[in-house]
Amino acid sequence: MKKVRHTAAIVLAVLAVIVVFQNTESVKTELLFATVTMPLALLLFVTLLIGGVCGLIVGHRWAKNGKDAES
């Protein structure tokens, strides 16, 4: 099962990198009170990174709560 997870993670990571590098034009992004111009690739990468970190945090907390409930 771990091998399937690792393979799926690698495939998704490669697909994400392909999508990010195909989008190199600049875009204007509004962040609260500021407007920032940056390459779309950077915006996609940062969004992907934030989503990944949030997923890891939530998954870790769910796993931790599941272990506590079984005890």
Instruction: Profile the largest sheet.
Output: 2 strands, antiparallel
Q: What is the tally of beta strands?
A: 2
Sheet-strand content, in percent, reads: 15-25%
Q: What is the number of domains?
A: 1
Low-confidence stretches: none
Please, what is the average pLDDT?
84
How many whole angstroms does the radius of gyration measure? 17 Å
Shape field: flat
Largest sheet strand order:
1-2
What order do the SSEs take from the amino end to the carboxyl end, as H and E? HEEH
Determine the structural class based on helices, strands and strand pairing. alpha+beta
Number of helices: 2
InterPro entries: LapA_dom (IPR010445)
Protein name: Lipopolysaccharide assembly protein A domain-containing protein
Organism: Rohdeia mirabilis
Keywords: Cell membrane, Membrane, Transmembrane, Transmembrane helix
Describe this structure as you would to a colleague.
The structure is a single chain. The chain has 71 residues and is an alpha+beta fold. It has one domain (1-69). Helices cover 73% and strands 17% of the residues. The chain has helices at 2-22, 40-70, and strands spanning 26-31, 34-39. A two-stranded antiparallel ribbon has the order 1-2. Strand 1 and strand 2 form a beta hairpin. Helix 1 packs antiparallel against helix 2 (40-70). The protein starts with a helix and ends with a helix. The mean pLDDT is 84.
